[in-house]
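ARCHIVE CARD
Drawer: 12
Card no.: 0347
Subject: one protein chain, sequence and derived structure
Cross-reference: see card 0346
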Amino acid sequence: MAPVVSGTHAEPLLPGLVTAAAPRKRSFINRPGAVLLTGAPKEKALPQLPANETGAVYSCPINLDPTDCTRMDLVTSVNADEIVEGMWLGVTVARQKDQWGGRVLACGHRYIRIRGPELSLWRMIGKCYDQNREGLCNMGISGGITRTDVYVGTPGSFNWQGNVHVTWRGATPDTSWDSRTQDFDDLQSKSFAYMGYSVTEEKKLLNQSEYTLVTGAPRDSNRGSVTLAKIEYSSLTPVQVLYGDQVGSYFGNSTFATVDL
């Protein structure tokens, strides 16, 4: 299981998902402590791992030296029931919104967990449920992190209908033990819609001060769609759905949310 890393402490958060504190190690041109984090999902594996290719995340100081990027060792060991070969670590990299020096989210959506009799069932899961048609979720193909939320798309859930999972965790030392999860729990059956293919949280959409979840389903009704949802206490509630105009356009493939034009 990939760890949550913050300083010298690590704890599991979600299978197939990594969060880490961005390293800050020297003086920079524009702002002290600034680094660029970039994913390399086809990068070779570390030599001690039973894999040829896992992907990786690199930390690059923003300075005059273009050669001093450092690989972040996020996956250094593997359990017997895990397969990290071809997991595409770094396919999604995001930082906590509005948090300078906060945590970073990095995902590998092709991470596999082995289950069943004699470890015969290979499931490309991320965070997944042992329910019918829930074995290929592709968790982490999209995602992000705010001060309190970690949100990830799972476009493979329920025969590729897709979903989004949000994990809320208290942001202060007194509430850091508290957590809850939200997802879309009343979706109409739309196989192969790919909801969660893209996802973000932004303010000033449905509410000026609270985050709105925005997710794309590029194969919804063959035209693609983008859903704006309210983040409730225990679920995500769709408020508005925007549909693409053309069949096969993959509308909703990416979501950047709000910009002022």
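Annotation on reverse: The first strand starts at residue 3 and ends at 6. DSSP finds one helix and 19 strands in the chain.
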